[in-house]
Write a structure and sequence with these properties.
By secondary structure, the protein is α+β, with helices and mostly antiparallel strands. The protein has 2 domains: 3-87, Arc Repressor Mutant, subunit A, CATH 1.10.10.10; 102-244, Endonuclease Chain A (Endonuclease, Chain A). The protein has 8 helices and 12 strands. It has helices at residues 3-11, 16-28, 33-40, 44-56, 75-104, 123-134, 152-163, 225-239, and strands spanning 30-31, 60-63, 69-72, 105-107, 115-120, 140-145, 167-172, 184-187, 194-197, 201-205, 216-221, 243-244. It has a 9-stranded mixed beta sheet with strand order 4-5-11-10-9-6-7-8-12, with helices on both faces. Helix 2 packs across helix 3 and helix 2 (16-28) crosses helix 4. The termini are far apart.
């Protein structure tokens, strides 16, 4: 049995020892466990477990007697069985992937003027999308925010933005120590969760992300200077009231 056959068997889902054992039985046709162990170079301490797994997968047959013998099914049948198992695994994986995609983000089909309302099932999905948007900043990020030390995706995005010389100024409702190294920041309770990027793009939470909900809504306004200016004014008016970290 050549190395390409062993490699194919492994690609079809067998372990190295399982592939060696089955490939050896293709050649020997029928043999005792000690002979299989020697020929396949599978340790004696492992060969019986390997044989049992191959029996469960219907790739070999156990012949009762003294001594007990093991026989491989026809090679073509074995490969067909492995391919069917692989196909079933792929179909299951496809179902899981579809379910996960459906649960991640639902887009509102109505988008006017580059604005959209989005819905996510999990708070971290909002964090991922927000992180992507923050990385698009060219000059500035300002915000009336509620970031905690646990929001690692946001902290990473802010650090990367800072390394691109983006200026970052945040009025944060929580005392997040991590923010100090990446932004000019003060603490102030304001009840908002909004970011202004480059003075024109706004990402703002509509739902209260501090509460447990079945889903959460937020909006991305890609080019809305009036809203960006209004939020900037709120930031300026409350900046002096904020407490330095």
């Amino acid at each position: 049995m050549n190395s390409q056959t062993y490699l194919l068997l492994e690609k079809l889902g067998l372990t190295e020892y399982e592939a060696k054992t089955l490939g050896t039985l293709f050649n020997l046709r029928e043999a005792e466990a000690p002979q299989i162990s020697r020929t396949a170079q599978v340790p004696k301490t492992r060969v019986y477990d390997v044989l049992e797994k191959l029996i469960q997968r219907r790739l070999i047959i156990e012949i009762k007697g003294r001594p007990k013998l093991y026989r491989a099914v026809e090679p073509q049948k074995a490969i067909d069985l492995l391919m069917m198992d692989k196909k079933d695994q792929f179909e299951e994986l496809k179902k899981e992937a579809t379910a996960i995609k459906d649960n991640l983000v639902d887009f509102d089909p109505k988008e006017e003027g580059g604005e959209k309302v989005m819905k996510v099932k999990d708070k971290q999905d909002f964090e991922k999308i927000l992180g992507q948007e923050l990385l698009k900043a060219n000059t500035s990020i300002q915000g009336l925010t509620e970031i905690t030390d646990d929001n690692n995706i946001i902290h990473d995005a802010l650090l990367r933005a800072k390394n691109k010389n983006v200026t970052i100024k945040l009025l944060n409702s929580n005392n997040s120590k991590k923010l100090k190294s990446n932004a000019e920041v003060k603490q102030f309770e304001h009840g908002l969760n909004a970011f202004i990027i480059d003075g024109k793009k706004v990402i703002m939470a509509i739902s209260d992300f501090k509460k447990q909900k079945p889903d959460y809504h937020f909006t991305i306004m890609n080019d809305n200077e009036p809203m960006a200016n209004a939020l900037t004014q709120v930031l300026k008016q409350n900046w002096e009231k904020g407490k330095k970290y």
